[in-house]
């Protein structure tokens, strides 16, 4: 049996025709004269109302139509008598695909807490909030591919299993087929990874960048968009153990080009979401407004979700150096009053509280910080002439902190090798990476955007675990 997605049905003029809709019952309401069923099929945030006359449906069928049950409803699409919807379906036939025992079905038509919904992550896509988030997530993923395709980038798939442990981007998950209870040992008592599946120690990737650079030095402009893993044991609202990272890498780009790309890219994908997810964003905007009302006046945010997104796409990001930012922070009120948890001075890695002060309090705009101290950044970043800083750039967003981290890369073989020695990485281990500097080296740059941090920003949600269907975090891998 064919059917019409509700999203299409509400858009086109099928009034007067007989239609079949298939979906899950959100609510059922009975009056003296009629039964009203609100159905949702996930194609849109909007439900369609199906109406039967009192006594029209057999009692046994009516009993099975409860919140969560799955139905096929056939009937004439008519202009709605009631307020709240333009059209509705006058039921001629109902088929119950699957019932949902109201005593056991955990999703009832009331507001559930996000914490509770995390415990039933297998069912939460059936809620308005999560279906909206998942549709927006899809639209953003599509917009990412579209942006790069429109701009001459090639999608490069970098490996998920890697042997390079030299990236220094975080703790890694080991990949092995060795017996965990009795692994083979070398003579000096260490695990003998030469007997492991790949004949060496391997891990899940923390970044596709090094391989991305190989692609850029052949194809010019590439991007990756794939799963990324970090075993950081941090239970924050902005970190996942498994997340999706987008990493463009461009030959002949310097730091400034990199910043221009990052800014244009984020603005373009946010604009795409505004254009293509208007209903879902309006729903989340409203949801957030309700949530804000429960907060104290001084804790309420000045902008609503839609206003915030509009604001970001219509204002230039502020650009300044790390050194300038430290100046601002050192002279800031919270620093003078000792209100920062972590102290600031030149050379420290900025904490999220510092990043958010700059973005939310000082500039009230997204900020791009550049030229960080070399000691707190990765070995591959291009060294500045002052010998102290590197050509790094972090894009900082309100409510999020760091959303993008990137840099121009060191393209000089001697400097790169010297830096590797300094930080204790054997250049031989990354011989293949260094070959790009040996043969036809060129200036190049790139960045990494955590996809979930982008979805977090666009949906206005507060916890990164709520913007990925099945979150992976410390002690969390149920579904
Ligand atoms: P942070 O300081 O916020 O932990 P990072 O500096 O370790 O991030 P990078 O190595 O620069 O992160 O990674 C590039 C981008 O990937 C970050 O800007 C962020 O958007 C995203 N990202 C990094 N770690 C995580 C994580 N654990 N979960 C989700 N996204 C992440
Ligand atoms: Mn970073």
Structure commentary:
The chain is α+β, with helices and mostly antiparallel strands and 479 residues long. The chain folds into 2 domains: 6-98, OB fold (Dihydrolipoamide Acetyltransferase, E2P); 128-169 and 206-466, BirA Bifunctional Protein, domain 2 (2-Layer Sandwich), CATH 3.30.930. Helix content is 32%, strand content 23%. The chain contains 14 helices and 16 strands. The chain has helices at 6-11, 59-64, 114-119, 128-150, 209-219, 255-276, 278-293, 305-314, 322-330, 333-336, 352-363, 413-423, 431-438, 451-459; strands at 18-30, 34-40, 48-53, 70-79, 87-98, 154-155, 161-162, 174-175, 202-204, 221-229, 242-251, 318-321, 367-373, 389-397, 401-408, 444-450. The chain has an 8-stranded mixed beta sheet with strand order 6-10-11-16-15-14-13-12. A 5-stranded mixed barrel has the order 1-2-3-5-4. Strands 7-9-8 form a 3-stranded antiparallel beta sheet, with no helix packed on it. Strand 14 (389-397) and strand 15 (401-408) form a beta hairpin. Helix 4 crosses helix 7 and helix 4 (128-150) packs across helix 14 (451-459). The longest helix has 23 residues, at 128-150. It is globular and about 85 Å long. The model has no long low-confidence stretch (mean pLDDT 95). Residues 169-170, 230, 232, 239-240, 243, 245, 402-405, 448-450, 452-453 line the site of adenosine-5'-triphosphate (ATP). Homodimer.
